[in-house]
Amino acid sequence: MMRPVIGITMSMRREENRLTLHRDNSDAIFLAGGLPFLLPYTTDKHCLHQMAKRMNGLLLTGGGDIDPGLFGEEPLLGLGEVEPERDRMEMALSQMMIEANKPVLALCRGFQILNIALGGDMYQDLYTQREGVIQHYQKATRDHASHTIQIAKDTTLRKVAGVDRIRVNSFHHQAVRRIPNGFIVSATAPDGVTEAFEKIGEPFVMGVQWHPENLYKKSAFARHLFQTFIDACKA
């Protein structure tokens, strides 16, 4: 059986003019039955349409901060380094995949840019914009699940997890605030910060604030999440 082609976004190391990818992203796709297709930076709409046409699904990966100008705000002091070209590319690709009814799985930064692409907004810096937050940038290895999330009932994520409460890893200081129309919040942190959303109905479109690719070897939940995504890409 042919493996579904999964486009995977990458990060830029500007000082080296080099695109990079944490290997866990492509390994998780391979192990779940997909065929990774690494996506170089471009904002050429014709090229992006050709990419979207060839992909069966899109994996939006983690990375740096998102330009607040994309959701109508000025930069705050807590904002980190932004990648405007990556922002524009990922927003365009996300919109194209949604319009084509193709599955999308978005991780951490990917969750945030998908939210912005579809009309939501976000916190530029949780620690200065919201009171009473827990530690969302853990001081532990990437495969350590540091805090719990509460998963909403009657959601795809609940079916994937099989439980209503589970621990995840966490490496972010930005977060989703208002979500787009047609989506529901499917998980929250103990402090109320949105940890996941999903599209109502088909196809599978989900964003999660944690990094399941780093938990794949240890966590049945992470493996089931990637498997559910790949199964949707085969449909």
From TrEMBL:
Gene3D superfamilies: 3.40.50.880
Listed InterPro entries: Class_I_gatase-like, Peptidase_C26, PuuD-like
GO cellular component, one term: cytosol
Keyword vocabulary terms for this entry: Glutamine amidotransferase, Transferase
Domain of life: Bacteria
Statement: the UniProt record of this protein carries the keyword Transferase: yes
GO molecular function (one): transferase activity
Gene Ontology BP terms: polyamine catabolic process
Pfam families: Peptidase_C26
PANTHER family tied to this protein: GLUTAMINE AMIDOTRANSFERASE PB2B2.05-RELATED (PTHR43235:SF1)
Protein name per the record: Putative glutamine amidotransferase
